[in-house]
Design a protein that fits this description.
With 384 residues, the chain is α/β, with parallel strands linked by helices. The protein has two domains: 189 residues, 3-Layer(aba) Sandwich (Rossmann fold); 129 residues, Zinc Finger, Delta Prime, domain 3 (Up-down Bundle), CATH 1.20.272. It contains 17 helices and seven strands. The strands form two sheets. The chain has a five-stranded parallel beta sheet, with helices on both faces. Strands 3-4 form a two-stranded antiparallel sheet. Helix 6 links the parallel strand 5 and strand 6. Helix 8 packs across helix 9 and helix 9 packs across helix 10. The longest helix has 24 residues. It starts with 19 loop residues before the first helix and ends in a 5-residue tail after the last helix.
Length: 384
């Protein structure tokens, strides 16, 4: 079937990929009634933590299984969970400060986000500005948790990005954990469990969640989203095997634009002067004015720097840059030729990989972008 005739078959909210071990463990715990009131699902971005959490929420309230096994995913209760319409299952996610009006949340803006999640349930919602769990949201959870179930057997709160609780929100959340109700389950999902305060961590039953296999991710991109295999491989290489990131980047026009921005980055860094770097950082249509765009741009730039390391190790003439990482392999090789020592380059790559934490803090993206360009120039032997 040609790509132009292919209709995407998005992943469902409760659909699990390569989660046989995790689902079996949860089914066994359900059967024995061994699941605590607060669960922590932790693992890297793209591992499917939220999907597993909603799957469990459906299992708790499934009409067919009686809350003692895997959900049927076809009864009215399961279908309501799948469409984010179950009155006893709540999705809680970090929000920008602009969503709040004092202690009140802008319900219209919130409804727009739920609409986005329903249309692309596998993806985590990203905002241009910093997003956190505010005190008002935790108070809302406490109020709702104090009420009886509306139609299910258990209230379930799926808290995405749980590590982004503000200090005052963490303290209020802790009070919620200290006053548990037998029919309430909180499922915290995070990439960085160590960022949670110890008193919250100590009250959580933990489950590590791993990313789907590369072959599974390739199959999803090719069979479910109609991407040619070479483009699917290119996307996954740029996303470091992260299916969620690959799905965020899959739009062809945006995909090409990100490659262009990586090429512009190498051009600016290789320029003996600094004007190109300033222009790149201050370009309003560029990736340094939006957190989501910046994250995806970094994924491509990180892949390109890996190409540079391979070029340095294997020799400038023998390395084959990963297809699509930088817009031009010539720029990668030219930058590689400027690098005198591979160790600063490895340190730079390590910094790039760890930049996700910085993006979750209230950092100025343009300053962060400038620091990256400055370091890339230093590694290449230029001063700034």
């Amino acid at each position: 079937m040609g790509e132009e005739n292919h209709k995407e078959n998005p992943l469902g909210l409760t659909e699990l990929l390569d989660k046989e071990l995790e689902s079996r463990m949860l089914q066994a715990a359900l059967a024995r009634d061994r699941l605590g009131g607060t669960l922590l699902f932790f693992g890297p971005d793209g591992s499917g933590k939220s999907s597993l959490a909603f799957w469990l929420a459906a299992a708790f309230n499934c009409s067919s299984s009686g809350g003692r096994g895997a959900p049927c995913l076809s009864c009215p209760a399961c279908r309501k969970v799948e469409t984010l319409n179950h009155p006893d299952v709540f999705w809680i996610f970090p929000l920008p400060g602009s969503f709040y009006r004092g202690e009140r949340i802008d319900e219209l803006k919130l409804a727009e986000v739920f609409g986005q999640k329903r249309s692309a349930p596998w993806l985590e919602i990203q905002f241009p500005e910093k997003s956190e769990h505010h005190l008002a949201m935790v108070r809302r959870i406490r109020t709702e948790a104090s009420r009886s179930c509306y139609e299910g057997r258990r209230k379930v709160f799926v808290v995405s990005g749980a590590d982004r609780l503000r200090i005052e929100a963490s303290n209020a959340f802790l009070k919620l954990l200290e006053e548990p109700r037998p029919d309430v389950t909180l499922i915290l999902c995070t990439e960085r469990p160590s960022s949670l305060i110890p008193t919250i961590l100590s009250r959580c039953q933990r489950l590590q969640v791993t990313r789907p296999r590369l072959s599974t991710c390739l199959g999803v991109l090719s069979e479910r989203f109609g991407l040619p295999e070479d483009q699917a491989r290119e996307l996954l290489a740029a996303a470091d095997g992260n299916l969620t990131a690959a799905l965020r980047m899959k739009d062809h026009e945006l995909f090409q634009m990100r490659k262009v921005w990586v090429e512009k980055t190498f051009q600016a860094v290789l320029d003996p002067g600094t004007q190109g770097c300033y222009d790149l950082v201050n370009e309003r249509n560029g990736p340094m004015w939006n957190r989501g765009d910046f994250e995806r741009y970094l994924a491509f730039l990180t892949q390109a720097l890996r190409d540079v390391i391979l070029s340095r190790i294997a020799g400038a003439d023998s390395a084959e840059p990963a297809k699509g990482a930088a817009g031009s392999s010539g720029l990668v090789r030219e930058y590689s030729a400027r690098v005198a020592d591979v160790w600063p380059l490895l340190n730079l790559l390590g910094r790039m990989v760890n930049l996700r934490d910085a993006l979750d803090r209230n950092v100025n993206l343009r300053l962060l972008g400038w620091s990256i360009l400055h370091k890339m120039r230093e590694v290449a032997g230029y001063g700034c």
